[in-house]
Amino acid sequence: MKQAKILSQIEKAKQQHTLVEVYVKKQTGEFEVGYPIVSDHRWLIIATVNAQGQFAGYTLFALKRIKRVRSTTPYLKIITTYQDFFKAHEQYDPFQLSEKETTISQWSKQLLPKLFTALTKERAYITIAGRFDITPVDQVVAATAHHFTCLPFDPLTYQHGEPVILAYKDISFLQFWDSADLLYQQTSEKLSEKI
Q1: What span, in angstroms and rounded, lies between the C-alpha atoms of 143 and 28?
Q2: Which residue from 24, 5, 25, 8 is spatially nearest to 16, judged by alpha carbons?
Q3: Is residue 99 domain-resident?
């Protein structure tokens, strides 16, 4: 996975407005910057980017561990938006979307664009009271409606560990860019090269 390819794909997606940059507030004055991979109103998995703009692995945030959330916070607005659209799309299957549409901008009849709009307007500033790191995570083995399975990879020994299964109850995965896109493919493959 080459840094230049990752950065060029990110910039291209930004220009096409098909990629949402997320700033997650961890502590006072401290933010995690990245791009959403899968999310619902309880969990957020982002492909993180370091200070040099390089891909820095995945981070899993537990959104339900939020403390003292006021009714006017962006988080609750996002939650409301998500839940309203989810009710109308209970049979929604994001893993089949790429077969029907070529780009996110064309998914006008799905819940994604309006959720993107909400995230973009609010810049997705979310205060986290707890967080979990998935390190190292490289290859996404499987993602279903109920769990997200990863295969840990040690870049020092070049060996894989036991699969990590993150089980969710009735989670809805949201696809944040086309599965045919180079960036999506690269962030879903094993991180076997140092950037």
Answers
A1: 33
A2: 8
A3: yes
**Residue 164 is assigned to a structural domain of this protein:** no
Structure tokens belonging to residue 105: 């901008």
For 81-120, write each residue's pLDDT tens digit. 444 444 444 443 444 433 433 333 333 334 444 544 544 4
E-assigned strand segments in the chain = 22-27, 30-39, 43-49, 55-62, 126-127, 131-134, 139-143, 147-151, 153-154, 159-160, 164-167
Q: What is the tally of structural domains in the chain?
A: 1
Within a domain: residue 155? no
The model carries a pTM of 0.32
Residue-range definition of the domain harbouring residue 117: 3-136+172-182
CA-wise closest residue to 153 among 116, 195, 189, 100: 189
Question: Is residue 158 in a domain?
Answer: no
- In whole angstroms, what is the distance from residue 184 CA to residue 46 CA? 12
Q: Is the dihedral of CA 9, 15, 17, 20 positive or negative?
A: positive
Between the alpha carbon of residue 101 and those of residues 34, 95, 104, 171, 185, the distances in Å are 25, 11, 7, 23, 17
Q: Which residues pair with 86 in a beta bridge?
A: none
Say if residues 85 and 111 touch (Cβ distance below 8 Å). yes
- Strands 126-127 and 22-27 turn out to be parallel
